[in-house]
Design brief:
Blueprint (H helix, E strand, L loop, with lengths): L4 E5 L8 E7 L1 E6 L12 H4 L1 H4 L6 E2 L2 E2 L2 H14 L4 E4 L6 H14 L1 E5 L10 H5 L4 H5 L3 E4 L3 H4 L3 H10 L3 E5 L9 E3 L13 E6 L6 H14 L2 E5 L5 H7 L5 E3 H10 L4 E5 L8 H4 L4 E6 L11 E4 L10 E2 L5 E2 L7 H10 L5 H12 L32 E4 L3 H5 L7 E4 L1 H7 L6 E6 L2 E9 L6 E4 L10 E7 L1
Parallel strand pairs: 6-7, 6-14, 7-13, 8-9, 8-11, 9-10, 11-12, 14-15, 15-16, 19-23, 20-22
Antiparallel strand pairs: 1-2, 2-3, 4-5, 4-16, 17-18, 19-24, 20-23, 21-22, 21-24
Helix pairs in contact: 3-13, 4-13, 4-14
Length: 474
């Protein structure tokens, strides 16, 4: 930090894009060309950060209060419901805060990191946790995409284009055609995929990933001798996965099940807005406690809000998808102190920081160096992934706007011209979508999409899954 300017990391995803945030009455975003992850380039989410960082206020049952009082009240409610408390941290905070939060969870309840690592073989956890350096993507000869790079991880597009310039072939396995792909296949057509030892598979791993699909991708890579890397949606996903690798943790699906069964009555969310991912379950909680630096959809529903500094003002460590150790930019430890108040102890930053460095295997935080992570070999997992057989599917494309709760202008669904003609939809009109018993009317856009699929970049039917069978009409 220099004056009112913070050298920080974009919280949109785990790509690790560096930027400057300037406090000048209103927040302003400036490019940071020295950043090794993005060399100054930003996606539309990064340029939207001033909208994202709306300061939260500490609240107890609708009454504004101080951070300390909110933390003390949270401690009382957690203690009174011990045994039915869940702690959720998706990876949107520093390694030091996540580690303290993990210690808190071990004392009072269960830790939920959102991902279902326990359902996957232990020998693949490191492969899922730490991706390959972006320079290896640029050097790849054959790249296979199981993501929409434009919508989900926009800054990787530059790396893909550089690889193409060097002669790489790009194959897309997706619901719609990708402009940069030399070959477009659909998710049901993986049998047509020709992989070699020169191939690189790029997928993503997030709280709503289908574990059988993840196993299938790992098996594809293993059997062909190909490389594989998983991108992730939260600013410190990699850090959270590494720190929690040996901890007892549960998935988002398990959390929803536990709340619905009534075994979880109090949920403590650390910098994790999951309201629209599980709206029905959230409503059943006796206590919803949220610790965060910015206002979001979930703070408006919480019984207790513990409001501290935003990410760019925090002191600590972040780990991007390559495994680079990065600094969020500030000197604040308010979030860590609040966790100490709840735990009834003091969490010392320096001790936690040393533990983080030891677990990562570094001696100093240096964003210009990718540590030499051990990448053990793994056996090809057995998988039983099956493509959906419903007539029409609604596929949710996860992107930074969806995961962060930030409003997005792209409020429409994409569908093929054949479907538009079959439904006799009118230009500039809407399409009616009946999903999970609810009826929704949305604007539409014609795109090179698989004929029986609607694509959405908004949260629609997600609590029931990423791929939702629907009925559509004019």
């Amino acid at each position: 930090m220099i004056g009112n300017v913070y050298s920080t990391i974009c919280p949109g995803c785990n790509f690790g894009c560096g930027l400057y945030i300037r406090e000048n009455g209103e927040l302003e975003v400036d490019f940071r060309k020295s950043s090794p992850a993005n060399a100054g380039k930003l996606c539309r989410f990064g340029m939207s950060l001033p909208r994202f960082y709306t300061p939260a206020r500490s609240i107890v049952d609708g009454r504004e209060t101080t951070l300390d009082e909110a933390a003390k009240e949270a401690a009382k409610r957690i203690s009174s419901t011990k045994g039915s408390v869940a702690f959720l941290s998706l990876g949107n905070t520093t390694c030091e805060e996540h580690l303290a939060f993990q210690k808190l969870a071990e004392s009072f309840g269960s830790l939920y990191t959102g991902v279902e690592l326990g359902a996957l073989p232990g020998d693949v956890h490191q492969t899922l946790s730490v991706g390959i350096p972006y320079s290896e993507i640029e050097a790849a000869k054959h790249i296979v995409l199981f993501i929409d790079p434009y919508e989900q991880y926009p800054l990787i597009v530059r790396r893909l284009l550089l690889a193409k310039k060097k002669g790489a072939k790009i194959t897309s396995i997706w619901w719609k055609d990708m402009p940069l792909a030399d070959e477009n296949l659909r998710p049901a057509d993986t049998s047509k995929l020709q992989l070699t030892g020169d191939s690189l598979i790029i997928a993503d791993f997030h709280p709503l990933s289908d574990t059988e699909q993840v196993k299938s991708l790992l098996a594809l890579a293993k059997n062909a001798g190909a490389k594989i890397t998983f991108l992730k949606p939260f600013v410190n996903s990699t850090g959270a996965y590494i720190l929690s690798m040996d901890a007892k943790q549960k998935s988002l699906a398990q959390l929803i099940e536990d709340i619905n069964k009534g075994t979880i009555k109090t949920l403590f969310c650390l910098e994790s807005d999951i309201l629209e991912l599980m709206p029905e379950a959230i409503a059943k909680l006796t206590n919803l406690i949220v610790q965060t630096g910015q206002e979001s959809a979930i703070t408006k529903k919480a019984h207790i809000v513990i409001a501290h500094e935003p990410l760019y003002k925090k002191r600590g460590t972040l780990i991007n998808n390559e495994g680079r150790a990065q600094a969020p930019g500030g000197a604040g430890t308010g979030g860590l102190e609040a966790l100490g108040t709840i735990a009834g102890t003091k969490f010392d930053f320096d001790s936690l920081h040393e533990s983080v460095k030891k677990m990562i295997g570094i001696t100093a935080v240096d964003e210009f160096t990718v540590p030499a992570y051990e990448r053990p070999t793994y056996a090809a997992p057995r998988a039983t992934a099956k493509p959906p057989d419903a007539k029409i599917l609604l596929a949710s494309v996860y992107n930074p706007f969806m995961w962060s709760g930030l409003a997005d202008d792209n409020d429409f669904v994409e569908l093929s011209l054949n479907m538009v003609r079959a439904l006799k939809l009118l230009k500039g009109g809407t399409v009616k979508i009946n999903y999970n018993g609810s009826l929704l009317e949305k604007k539409f856009k014609v795109a090179p999409v698989q004929d029986n699929v609607l694509l959405t970049g908004k949260r629609i039917g997600i609590e029931k899954g990423a791929i939702t069978p629907v009925e559509v009409s004019r």
